[in-house]
């Protein structure tokens, strides 16, 4: 018997999740024994509703929403050993992409329904902050997290143009910071532009910032951009979409089970697109921490 909860975040993707809800429910309901649909507009609501569903006995949480919604589902599922299924309906959808799911809600729901019907599940790794939250995709700090900070303060425009304007503004305000990247086996101490720690390759809507990251190998991939000028960053930006940025001489990559990012340099860490807080932080990979329906 499979008891499932469909957690929908109606505002995801500027309303895409709400618009897709009925079609997604129509695909999922026939392949489970019981389906509870829970709708939440805030993180607190989402957590409370999932806890209530857990108390009723729960095997699978299906998250209909974007990466922020998935991030909340990951916290609940990893902590409670409940399987997670993802139906992407946000702007980035990076964890769904890493799982090989279609980018649109209805085709993704059909893929999830097939996996549920066939009992297809697998275990994947997660990153975790020391004593803090899990993350499924990429944690970043530096230039990219500054772009996120600026985007979160902006009310106009919507969609990708907001990110484009934030990138231009942060290029104009570019500042490097001292950074120590310590994996226990390797230690980098440098003036840096940004750092990304990947459990999966993608962030920012399909950018493979950590192109070799594999959520089944028990390791994190760490991409460090050194003291890059504005011109350097403009040159590197087109190569981000292909993963070729790792070939630039001021980019270093490391692989490790855990990594400490220090000192306190006023950088804010983001993971799965969610604000986590300032450096210093320590991050570890927890192998096979999450069951996914995929």
UniProtKB/TrEMBL annotation:
Keywords, comma-separated and alphabetical: ATP-binding, Kinase, Lipid biosynthesis, Lipid metabolism, Magnesium, Metal-binding, Nucleotide-binding, Phospholipid biosynthesis, Phospholipid metabolism, Transferase
InterPro entries given in the database record: ATP-NAD_kinase_N, Diacylglycerol/lipid_kinase, Diacylglycerol_kinase_cat_dom, Lipid_Phosphate_FormReg, NAD/diacylglycerol_kinase_sf, YegS/DAGK_C
Cofactors named for this entry: Mg(2+)
MF GO annotations: ATP binding; ATP-dependent diacylglycerol kinase activity; metal ion binding
Keyword Nucleotide-binding included in the entry's annotation: yes
Gene3D superfamilies: 2.60.200.40, Probable inorganic polyphosphate/atp-NAD kinase, domain 1
GO biological process, alphabetically ordered: phospholipid biosynthetic process
Positions of the DAGKc domain: 1-133
GO-annotated cellular components: plasma membrane
Family under the similarity heading: Belongs to the diacylglycerol/lipid kinase family.
NCBIfam families xrefs: YegS/Rv2252/BmrU family lipid kinase
Protein name per the record: Diacylglycerol kinase (ATP)
């Amino acid at each position: 018997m499979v008891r499932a909860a469909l957690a929908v975040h109606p505002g995801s993707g500027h309303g895409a999740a709400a618009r897709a809800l009925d079609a997604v429910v129509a695909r999922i309901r026939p392949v489970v024994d019981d389906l509870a649909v829970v709708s939440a507009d805030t993180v607190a609501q989402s957590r409370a509703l999932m806890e209530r569903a857990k108390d009723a006995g729960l095997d699978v949480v299906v998250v209909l929403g974007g990466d922020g919604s998935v991030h909340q589902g990951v916290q609940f599922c990893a902590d409670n050993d409940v399987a997670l299924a993802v139906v992407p309906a946000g702007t980035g959808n990076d964890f769904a992409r890493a799982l090989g799911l279609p980018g649109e809600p209805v085709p993704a729901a059909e893929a999830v329904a097939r996996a549920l019907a066939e009992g297809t599940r697998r275990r994947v790794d997660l990153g975790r902050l020391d004593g803090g939250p899990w993350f499924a995709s990429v944690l970043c700090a530096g230039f990219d997290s500054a772009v996120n900070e600026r985007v979160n303060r902006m009310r106009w425009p919507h969609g990708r143009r907001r990110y484009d304007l934030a990138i231009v503004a942060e290029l104009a305000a570019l500042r490097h910071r001292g950074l120590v990247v310590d994996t226990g086996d390797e230690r980098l101490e440098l003036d840096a532009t940004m750092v990304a720690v990947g459990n999966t390759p993608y962030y920012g809507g399909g950018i493979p910032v950590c192109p070799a990251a594999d959520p089944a190998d028990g390791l994190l991939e760490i991409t460090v951009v050194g003291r890059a000028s504005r011109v350097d960053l403009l040159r590197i930006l087109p190569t981000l979409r292909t993963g070729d940025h790792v070939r630039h001489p001021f980019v270093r990559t490391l692989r490790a089970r855990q990594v400490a990012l220090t000192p306190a340099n006023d950088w804010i860490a983001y993971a799965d697109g969610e604000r986590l807080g300032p450096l210093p932080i320590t991050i570890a990979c927890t192998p096979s921490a999450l069951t996914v329906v995929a």
